[in-house]
Design goal:
Elements (H helix, E strand, L loop, with lengths): L24 E5 L4 H12 L3 E6 L2 H9 L6 E4 L5 H15 L4 E4 L15 H29 L2 E6 L3 H4 L5 H20 L5 E8 L12 H9 L9 H11 L10 E5 L7
Parallel strand pairs: 1-2, 1-4, 2-3, 4-5, 5-6, 6-7
Helix pairs in contact: 1-8, 3-4, 4-6
């Protein structure tokens, strides 16, 4: 009778750092505060050089100075195509590459019924929340296509799926971001560039200062987890979508809603 087999000693299998962004350049708009700051912090921690893009350059410099990998700040008015082009040129002059674009900058706008919304309120929401995303995508995509690689993550909102009352401009623009994401994701599907959106429910950031307590309660009460999200919880989802591992994920909208989203 042969002797019993001795179990083999398990060998440690070396594995690369998952979701590493080492050596990559990541643009994050509206990154001087809130969700954008959390995203820039997360991507930099994963090895990326984070470009903190914001209209408030002083705050952007403060955030960038605290990040590793030679992260830096760039000023841009995302609603203006010329300003966006200048920002992208500044990034390319400094790093020579753009691997990741996160379109996070946005506004809530005043709380008002649609018949109370002014032309200025409507146009400002469109200019920042929707045209700003278009401006950055249109400017960065040719560079990504030339390198056959890129990751674009657009920050939408659950309001873009469900529509929040007294927030019709915001809801409409975020719905537009979702549709725009799906469209260009399909356009770039064979170019090595993946484009996705993240739709948060209400998150505890400065943008809540623009809303009434009634609006905040309306949104929070619809969340099964019964709380607001945290900026870093959104950043976790963005990090995956911005990574090389998200190679078979494009033209999708990922919800980070504490269970609120139903589709």
């Amino acid at each position: 009778m042969p002797p019993p087999m001795t179990p083999a000693t398990p060998q440690a299998i070396p594995s690369p750092a998952m979701f590493s962004l080492a050596g990559q350049t990541a643009i994050v708009t509206g990154a001087a505060t809130g969700i954008g700051q959390a995203i820039a912090t997360r991507l930099a921690a994963a090895g990326a050089t984070a470009v903190v893009v914001d209209l408030n350059l002083a705050e952007a410099h403060t955030v960038a100075a605290a990040l590793p990998n030679n992260s830096f700040a760039v000023q841009a008015d995302i609603s203006k195509a010329d300003s966006v082009r200048a920002a992208v040129e500044a990034v390319l002059a400094r790093t020579g590459r753009i691997d990741i674009l996160v379109n996070n900058a946005g506004i809530a706008g005043p709380a008002a019924y649609v018949w109370e919304q002014t032309d200025e309120d409507w146009q400002r929401n469109i200019a920042i929340n929707l045209t700003g995303v278009f401006n950055f995508c249109r400017t960065v995509i040719p560079h990504m296509r030339s390198r056959s690689y890129g990751r674009i993550v657009n920050i939408a909102s659950i309001a873009g799926k469900e529509g929040n009352p007294r927030m019709s401009p915001y809801s409409a623009t975020k719905a537009g971001v979702i549709g725009f994401t799906k469209s260009i994701g399909k356009e770039l599907a064979t170019d090595g560039v993946c484009v996705n959106a993240v739709s948060p429910a209400v998150v505890q950031t400065r943008i809540l200062d623009e809303l009434t307590p009634e609006q905040i309660s309306y949104m929070t009460d619809k969340i099964p987890m019964r709380r607001t999200g945290k900026p870093e919880e959104i950043a976790y989802v963005v990090h995956f979508l911005a990574s090389p591992e998200a190679s078979f994920v494009t033209a999708q909208c990922y919800d980070a809603s504490g269970g609120r989203a139903t589709y």
